[in-house]
Design brief:
Blueprint: H1 2-36, H2 52-65, E1 98-101, E2 105-107, H3 109-113, E3 119-121, E4 128-131, H4 138-142, E5 150-153, E6 157-168, H5 173-177, E7 186-191, E8 197-203
Parallel strand pairs: 1-5, 2-3, 4-7
Antiparallel strand pairs: 3-4, 5-6, 6-8, 7-8
Length: about 200
């Protein structure tokens, strides 16, 4: 009885030592497995992540909003335009005044008194005398004609007035013959209103 009781503690110690050895060997095996297994790389904390991508996006965004300005082109210098010179215009050529004398017939004093218009006064033979009373329209038709006026006499042609002369009414044919130093081919003749005189206009 006493021997078995004494042996039991020694067996318990043996079992305890074996269990300890097993535990230590298991712990060592686990430690070797832990040290030999690869460990995943450590990830940086969210605050420690690099901010380079964020900084690189900002210039790209600003570049898309504000495109670079094109290079300035040098201003082209245009040659100065020459001043426009105004060509002096020649004054218009003076027009020659003209008159038209219709001839309605020929005859003596009766043909003139008929007041039908200018007539060839046949009593005058040294020249062709075209006569009309002033009150029949002769004054308004003939009085304005000055030397240089082109006068067309119906049935006789176109002439140029070159002299004017005032003579008394009823002057002789010799006065007409000596008019302006010679015998003009045609003489226009009309009375001056309110007087006893006649206006003679020589044509050649």
């Amino acid at each position: 009885m006493d021997l078995r009781a004494t042996d039991l503690p020694s067996e318990g110690r043996a079992v305890t030592q074996q269990a300890g050895e097993r535990g230590s060997s298991a712990a060592g095996e686990q430690e070797r497995m832990t040290s030999s297994s690869p460990q995943p790389p450590s990830r940086p904390a969210p605050d420690e992540q690099p901010s380079a991508p964020v900084q690189q996006q900002k210039p790209a965004q600003s570049a898309s909003v504000q495109p670079p300005a094109p290079p300035a082109r040098p201003a082209s210098k245009k040659p100065a335009a020459a001043p426009v010179q105004k060509t002096p215009t020649a004054p218009p050529a003076p027009t020659t005044p003209s008159a038209f004398i219709p001839v309605v017939g020929a005859g003596g004093q009766a043909a003139v008194d008929a007041c039908a218009g200018p007539v060839r006064f046949t009593p005058v033979t040294v020249s062709v005398s075209i006569a009309e009373h002033d009150l029949c329209g002769g004054w308004s038709r003939m009085s304005w004609i000055q030397p240089g006026t082109a006068v067309t006499v119906q049935g006789y042609g176109t002439f140029t007035a070159f002299a004017r002369m005032v003579v008394p009414r009823g002057s002789k044919e010799a006065v007409l013959g000596g008019f302006a130093g010679g015998s003009p081919p045609i003489v226009l003749q009309t009375c001056i209103p309110g007087t006893l005189e006649m206006l003679l206009i020589a044509l050649h």
